[in-house]
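Our preliminary data section would be incomplete without showing what the modeling component actually yields. Below, a chain of 455 amino acids is followed by its predicted structure, encoded as C-alpha cells that our downstream tools consume directly.
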Amino acid sequence: MKRTKVTIQTLGVSSPLDDHPLMLSDTVVKKWKIPVRTPLTLCFGSAKHEVKIVPTAIADVLQIHEAIAGQWGLSHGDSLCLQYKTIDQTLHIGPLIGVLISRVHFGNTEKPFGSTTAFYRELNETSRLLGVSICFITPDELSDHSQTVQGWRYTDKWEQRSFPMPHVIYNRLTSRKLENRANVQQFFRHAKTRHQATLFNEKYLNKSEVFDALNKETDLQPYLPESHLLRNYEILKSMCAKHPVIFLKPITGSLGKGIMRITKQEDLSYVCHFTNLNEARKQTFKSLAHLFSALSGKIKQQRYQIQQGLHLIAIEGRPVDFRALVQRNELGQWEVTSIVARIAGHQHFVSNLARGGRLSTVKEALVKSGCAAAAGVAPKLRHAALWIAKGIERNISAHFAELGIDLAVDIQGRIWLLEVNSKPSKEDNTPLWAEGKVRPSVKRIVQYSRYAAKF
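Predicted structure:
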C-alpha cells in the first residue's frame, strides 16, 4: 500500500485552533500533490478536522496544533503513516488500532495488564516502528454510540487518553462472559456499521462449531478425528465401542481445563483420567453406565465434545502435540508464522504449559520421539495448519486474522486436528525467540492491521 511516514510535532500556539494551519514537509506535499493553503479534511480514525496545509522545509514532519493532538490522543514524536486522497481532498494519518483487553490493574503501574503487559508493550513498540498508533481499551471504558473511546497507551509510562474510534479493532478479550456483555456487543456493532472499522478475532470459537464447520470440506476431513457433541449415553456407548480411548472436552474450555480421557479395559471396566493443575486424577468404573452416571452432573452443567482418542508420538512416554500460529500477513493472506512442539508434563495427558507442559522445536521433538513414520512430517504440519485456517474462514461467519491451531501426529505419521483457538494465549503458545527482538507474530498483527485500515 502506498504511504509516507511522518513524525508528529505538536505546537503550543496562542492562535485559535481553526486559524492555525498544518505544517507539512514540502517533499511530502510535492510527492502527494497536496494543495496548499486551501481547505482540506484531516482524518485520524473516525475523527475529522478542517485544515489548511503550509509547506515546511523540515523533512518528514507534520506539525499539528496541540489542541488537535490532545483531542485525538497523539503525542509529540509519534510516527504515523500519511496518505492524501484527491477524490475527496482528505489527508489521512494513522492507522489507529484499538486493542480490546479484559481489565486494567490500576494499582500496578509496572504491570497494569497483568501477565500480558509485556506482550502489549511489545505490540506498542512494534506499532511505533511501523508508523501505527495503538491504544488499549477495556469493556468498562466503552460507552454506547460514542465517537471516541477511552484507552491506554505507552510513551514513557502507561497513561489513559481519549481517542477517536479506531480504524481497526483487535479483540483480545480473554473471557466469553466479557465478550458477550451487552455494551461490548453494542460497541462491535457501532464500530463496524457506523464507522466501518475492521474488527478481527471478533468471537471465541467452540470445539463443536469448529469440527462441524471443517467437516463440510472433503479435503479437510482426513485431519478430523471422529468427534460429536455429547448429547446422551448412546453417543458415549457408540464411541466407546469404536475406539479404545476417547476424550471428553468442554466445548468452551481452554488451557486443558476439564478434559477427560476414558480408556476401556480388558475386563470391560473403564478408567477415566481427569485433568487438574498438579496431575491427572484417575478413577475406575465397573461399567460404562456407571461412568456416565458419575459424569451426568458435569454433562448437565457444561456441554462436552466427545472425540476419538489417538495414539500420538511421545517423548519418554509424554504425548507431544504442535501449536501452529497462523496469521494474516501485510497483504491480508494467511501464513504460518510459527509452529512449536508442546510436550506434556509428568503424569499429564495434555500438553498445555499451564498443566506442566514444555516447549520444544518441531525438529527436536520429532527426532526425540524416535518415530520413523513422523520423520518427514514438519512441512505437512505447516500445510495442514494453513488449510485449516482457510477452512475456518470459508465456513464460519466471523472475521479472524490470527488462529492458534493445535495439531497432533500419530505413530503412523498421520496429522490430526485437536483444536482451533481464536484467542491464542500470548503465554501458552509463545514461540522460542531471542530476548529483545520483535517477534514476527507481533509484527504481523500490526502489518495486517495497517493493511485492513488501507494504509
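The longest strand covers residues 318-328. Residues 140 and 386 are 36 Å apart (CA to CA). Preliminary results of this kind motivate Aim 1 of the renewal.
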